[in-house]
């Protein structure tokens, strides 16, 4: 792959996201008008979505596209799911070589010791899992990283899923950052979502702010999500979600236009991203502990060719203080 293609792919990614071409863009939050605390959650489909070629140039092009969006959003925390180990090291090394406030620290967690298609990123290390990136060198606190395997339905065993957490600094404030990818089987999802809520709450030290992001494989209004949301029918959680106040997405009796917020949001999985995605739905989230953050904002962005089978979700908020 020649350098010209690498440049084109990066441009397609950043331009496609920033211009907002694609579905569900009626209420776009731009980098210029977003609140100061910035977040990204993205299922990058590292093992299932093939690169155009297994070359250094193709890998560098993909990383350049992602980094362009991280920079455009001035992102503080980035949560990536379905991430191959070789993919993570390329992003990590690209961001770590920077100086000062433009640098990022990172933690990784493996859900699977090997995924065959991760060989496109590193033929010698095919681990598959999650990562969190935090702005600032050495921003993660040593000894606070945890990887917890989530429960499974014994009658319906499935792929291992994890919750990755660590303490870091968000604009100088100590926070607990957590990332997960919940299983799509209904009986397992029902077990894993409440467990994630329980684990994140237990990990917080002294009531510190919590940011929980990931692919939950469940829609906002489903009862499984009650353990996370602090509002909306039977809710038992402590979180708000960045894209919960986009009235363009308020639908049905449970989401009247008179409401200030609703368990809803722009779709993050749709056929526009991949022909193997049959339904259009919101299943990716950035949750913020309600007592610490206010004025949430969010957008699910378009899907440039060859990047992922999910929309990138970006969010913003301000401190509640």
Automatic annotation (TrEMBL):
InterPro entries given in the database record: Endo/exonu/phosph_ase_sf, Endo/exonuclease/phosphatase, GPI-anchor_lipid_remodeler
Residue span of region Disordered: 251-276
Pfam annotation, one family: Exo_endo_phos
GO molecular function, one term: exonuclease activity
Domain Endonuclease/exonuclease/phosphatase: 40-310
Highest taxon of source: Bacteria
Keywords annotated in UniProt: Endonuclease, Exonuclease, Hydrolase, Nuclease, Signal
Listed GO CC annotations: membrane
Biological process annotations from GO: GPI anchor biosynthetic process
Name listed for the protein in its UniProt record: Endonuclease or exonuclease or phosphatase
Organism: Streptomyces venezuelae (strain ATCC 10712 / CBS 650.69 / DSM 40230 / JCM 4526 / NBRC 13096 / PD 04745)
